[in-house]
Amino acid sequence: MEIKTILAECGFGFKKQLGQNFITDKNLLASIVTASGVGENDEVVEIGCGAGTLTRALAERVKKVTAFEVDKTLQPVLERTLAGLDNAEVVFRDFLKVDLKEFEEKSGEYFVVANLPYYVTTPLIMKLIEDAEKCKGLSVMVQEEVAERLCAKAGTPEYGAITAMVALRAECAIVKRVPRTLFYPRPNVDSAVVKFTFGSGVGVKDKAAYKKAVHAAFSSRRKTLVNNLMNSYGLPRARAEEILTDCGIDLKARGETLTPKQFAILSEKL
Fold it and tell me: If we measure between CA atoms, which residue out of 54, 68, 56 comes closest to residue 18?
């Protein structure tokens, strides 16, 4: 049965504040699952399962799906869209409020595959990048503009703090672009699927120091790195310049010109 019909029969009303835009195209769903690289022996965590269309596509391909959803009014919809599946569990909780350490104590290794609500994209990605220990990979549908920022290269306008923070743990790439016409209801922007490959990021001794250096560098994009370091670390100009020189960084450089590897070197020196 068409998902639109099920939603109507269940009397479901879309909540704009939750960024609810569901995927209905079966070919798109199949391609998202394929691009994620998950297989029949894998466990998957889905965040924001909505009407359960991606949940079902995943469950038909993998060992188990644990889907998190904040909107409890979707329960009757999900009972119908996931009928007949014994390997899909829906948890009505806000994943941002889930204690990841506690969750991972009860789980094995897992992949995250999700069509993320736009308004929680960045905090959810950073939660997994910074705190997840058993997550093997991450494939998420996000707003196209955000996808460009996540995968940007140093020296481009899209490159920012989140790009450098993601690089700490993973490499990421846009694997599929998705026009707004394939969602119901139709959003105002196009989307893209970004795949994060964990275990191939920048190695650092102190993650907190790296994070502080990145946020200091981008605290004011128009200012040079020297000025941002002076302001964030309380350094005299001569010392800030000395540190950059020791790291082989141009004294006129701005934060967006530094590669993640340079941020790693800088953070250790700081």
Answer: 68
